[in-house]
Amino acid sequence: MTSTALRSRAWKLLEMVTTPLLPSDYLDLVSPLRAGADLRGRIEAVHPETGDAATVVIRPGRGWRGHTAGQYVRVGVDVDGRRLWRAYSITSPTDRQDGRITITVKAIPDGKVSNHLVHRTTPGTLVQLDQPAGDFVLPPAKPAKVLYLTAGSGVTPVMGMLRDTGFDDVVMVHCAPRPQDVIFRNELHGLVADEKLRLTEVHTATDGRLDIARLGELVPDWAERETWACGPEGLLDAAERHWAGHGVQERLHTERFRPRVVVTGDGGEVTFSATGRTVDADGATPLLDVGEEAGVLMPSGCRMGICFGCVTPLKAGAVRDLRTGEITEAEPGVLIQTCVSAAAGPCDIER
Amino acid sequence: MTAIDPTAHLTAEQIEELGRELDAIRDEVIADRGEKDAAYIRKVISVQRKLELASRGVLLFSIFPPAWLIGTAGLSVAKIMDNMEIGHNVLHGQWDWMRDPKIHSTTWEWDHVSPAEQWKHSHNELHHTYTNVIGKDNDLGYGIMRVDEDQRWHPFHLGQPLWNFLNACFFEYGIAAYDLELGKNLQKRRRRSPEFRARARAVGRKIRKQVLKDYVIHPLLSGPSFLTTLAATFTANLVRNIWTHSVIMCGHFPEGVQVFERRSVKGETRGQWYLRQMMGSANISGSRAMHFMTGNLSHQIEHHLFPDLPSNRYAEVAVKVRALFEKYELEYVTGPLPKQVFSAWHKVFRLSLPNRKPKVKTPDHRQELVAA
Ligand code: FES
């Protein structure tokens, strides 16, 4: 018998011993970061960056596959006992020796997860992780000239790139309200001092918003540069128009913090017929959340549309897939994933 | 439907007001649920798992009597924790709000021969909706006992103290059979239904796994301690079964608990539903350890009012609920475990015999009872 076959036999035996649990349920108690466990990470330190931003150092579990500079990771954090998932750019370089990664989080007003991570989390806390994802990354072949255009916490994926890969000719334009709001300001100025970066800070509290039409005044050769832009919607929309207007859109790479959600045919009255509850829902809230808020027993798993742990019959009405905008109408046998579907008019969910 | 309705003094408005007051108690807990509660259930789960693991470890040496005693005691407690404070409550969805897929009613499986999925249906949906409604809530006597004077007596009932005792010893199997509605489904026509067969197969699989673990694999791993380990697991299962059966009997069977007629629940309002839960359940008084070991089903009344509130909150809720019982002059049936168990068994014995001739009741007597 091969050793893998032997191991799988041994594992089967172990499963019989632990039934109805799995061996991993016990192993998680002692070694939550081991290979083969669900991917998690342990927060090892939290360093303040600015008044409302902090860098969180995470030791990922053994199953972590490693990231490419510029990618983000989805993090599941327990806030007030409830697990909430958010995506954050990875700010550490890919070759960090100690195997840890960092994310840098800016606390946004009323942001449950961001405020928790910046102000309240403590070293030792376990968080859930997904594998890194996102195609806002540097190309394998080095471009001759690079422009980074960022605003606010849009600097975070770019910081991951700057720390990872050096280029001969890099310009960065970064917008933040005031100098003290610039995340990584010391490090950026250090790069400038070492002549590894040319940096223009736009302080919007005093200088006003960056007018993209006048980008040429700051970076005359912007159109020749391979550009990575990350920041609020308004900035990215303007950048896309500007680059397209000059016929160089293929040089522009953008990263939006939130995937754009289609919101037409807004919400409606949702009936959870098995429970006999009826509530109003908007067109952007997943029916899973709507149900949970209303106290309905909702099955769930990944909460992001991949595990089908949340599928539920749609008995009447229509729902919209929040990822694609696709409408699904009730028919016998139609199942929907409540975690990625919102009400598109009145509907009846069999829960 | 007992001869004297202990809620007769309440007006319809009072009952609705009572419902609103109970809703307010519920909302308060929900608004306050948070980190501490999550930490509580995580802790309980981790303690249970460690205790079970350690006890099974000790039982590998159960050929030595002290190891047998310690291991058996530990395993019994671990199994009780698994079924009561953890399994029952997780499967009620009490912890779903944490959104942790590992502590969620849809993913949880317990150390019990009835698959979680089937139990949730018969328990959460049927029993909790139709609590104590004769003919609808099969938890009333589990279909094998007569638990109210108004149920027709049959010579079969003479044996019910014995059935009840056997049911206590093999309670998990009783529950599995009950979840399958075995009595009803074994009739010829139904036996064939693919739906029933699938469910029966699922139970079969679960039983096989459970038995294999407890009575084959674990004893085999113990080598020379094979027989003693087998005896230990059998004992632990017996202890757990008798314990859970006793606790559950205390929830709805003691004297003073009301049962209801089918037609009384037609078009029930929220207030009336609450009132039925209040009158149809009974508590067990005792120490914190007692509450914990019963999975907080010692707060059966509170549990039936709010089946999906986290169990660790029932104790604080109980104070407010009890105040409402007093305010509305209702009887809060509670007592120490031995008293309640005795009361429930007494009823089982009493109702195994046909009703005695009803005494002629004077209006005075009726008055007295209502006032009490
Ligand atoms: S929860 Fe995983 S697909 Fe919806």
From TrEMBL, chain A:
SUPFAM superfamilies: 2Fe-2S ferredoxin-like, Ferredoxin reductase-like, C-terminal NADP-linked domain, Riboflavin synthase domain-like. Its cofactor is FAD. The keyword Transferase does not apply. GO terms for molecular function: 2 iron, 2 sulfur cluster binding; metal ion binding; oxidoreductase activity. Residues 268-351 form the 2Fe-2S ferredoxin-type domain. InterPro entries: 2Fe-2S_ferredoxin-like_sf, 2Fe-2S_ferredoxin-type, Beta-grasp_dom_sf, Cbr1-like_FAD-bd_dom, FAD-bd_FR_type, FNR_nucleotide-bd, MRET, OxRdtase_FAD/NAD-bd. Residues 36-139 form the FAD-binding FR-type domain. Keywords: 2Fe-2S, FAD, Flavoprotein, Iron, Iron-sulfur, Metal-binding, Oxidoreductase. PANTHER family: NADH OXIDOREDUCTASE HCR. This is Ferredoxin-NADP reductase. It comes from Kitasatospora gansuensis.
UniProtKB/TrEMBL annotation, chain B:
One of its GO terms (cellular component) is membrane. It is an enzyme of class 1 (oxidoreductase). The lineage of its organism: Bacteria, Bacillati, Actinomycetota, Actinomycetes, Kitasatosporales. Keywords: Oxidoreductase. GO terms for molecular function: acyl-CoA 6-desaturase activity. One of its GO terms (biological process) is lipid metabolic process. InterPro entries: FA_desaturase_dom, Fatty_acid_desaturase. Its EC number is 1.14.19.3. This is Linoleoyl-CoA desaturase. Residues 67-334 form the Fatty acid desaturase domain.
